[in-house]
Amino acid sequence: MSFLVLDRLTKKFGENTVVDALSFSVEKGEFISLLGPSGCGKTTTLQMIAGFVDATSGAVTLEGRDLLKVKPAQRGLGIVFQSYALFPHMSAAENVAFGLEMQRVPQAEREARVKQTLNLVGLSAFAGRYPRKMSGGQQQRVALARALVIKPRILLLDEPLSNLDAKLREEMQIELRQIQRTIGTTTILVTHDQSEAMSLSDRIVVMNAGRAEQIARPHEAYERPATSFVASFLGKTNVFGAALLRQGDTTFAVIGDGRWPVAHIAAERARVTVRPEKIGFGDSVACSMGGRIKMRVFQGNHWLYQVETPSGLVTVTRPNTGEAASEEGATVRVTWRAEDMVVQPEAS
After folding, report:
1. 3-state DSSP call for residue 34?
2. pTM for this one?
3. What is the rounded distance in angstroms from the CA atom of residue 109 to the CA atom of residue 237?
4. Pairwise CA distance, residues 44 & 12, whole Å
5. 220 and 272 housed in the same domain
6. Are residues 24 and 45 in contact, defined by beta-carbon separation less than 8 angstroms?
7. Which of 25, 83, 84, 244 could share a disulfide with 2, CB 3.0–4.6 Å?
8. Residue 176 has what pLDDT?
9. Quick check: 108 and 89 in contact, CB under 8 A?
10. Rounded CA gap, 28 and 185, in Å?
11. Rounded CA gap, 312 and 304, in Å?
């Protein structure tokens, strides 16, 4: 039996369906991310698990127990909000101890657990400091410690890193993953940041319009997106319309003046997606398409190119090896392997 199960969970506000029959399960100790654009229903899903929003229909069970019938304060969940929601008149240690006080944990045990948890998040030296005297990253650690100190059955994170600058966010992603692995707490993260979800998660639930478009490990979702939405949302991708040509027992996807062998599809046309880093420049006509470099941009560890082709602009990223880069205006053939394409039938 899975640890946490969402079964056709639905939330409607009037006629507007925000979460639409969402189903997935979470194993004990797993780190799951709900990833999607604003308005896709990910935060509402988290709030229904927490009990802050009532579900319209469906079920949420935790180790077989109906969680929707349990009051929020009795669900045993730790929550970190986007705003951190720290008490400004309390020190870091007092903020962390608050949940234990509500549970009436004896003082000696309370002090020991607060000290242990502050040490876990690297804030032992800041126990007496107030939030206004702390950086955003330090406040985020206090909020995380406050959620962890009660030893929650599930840790819920609602965009906890979105207020941090890019460098600090990246550092906190590493720390958050290390802490989660150290204590093994089952964790559900809500985020719109693709790189954050991919770097932190065991699995990703990619949401769109209240539904799960794909549930998979980060690498699988990136390399083999189930839908065109997943392909476009998880990083950059090139999208081509392709005619399907059958010659004997082989089916080819025809893109521009090139063609690539593909598995047989019962359709006349297909939608093909290819990641920019899978595309290179070559001399062979096989599995390639002619074009002209419109623009190139140096981005440190790689070059980014835009290539004009008969099928539109193609984005290409190539590693910076120190060798001379292809020039703007140069005629090239963009090439990629057939196995690096995701091919989906396109309606007539």
Report:
1. strand
2. 0.86
3. 53
4. 10
5. no
6. no
7. 25
8. 87
9. no
10. 8
11. 16
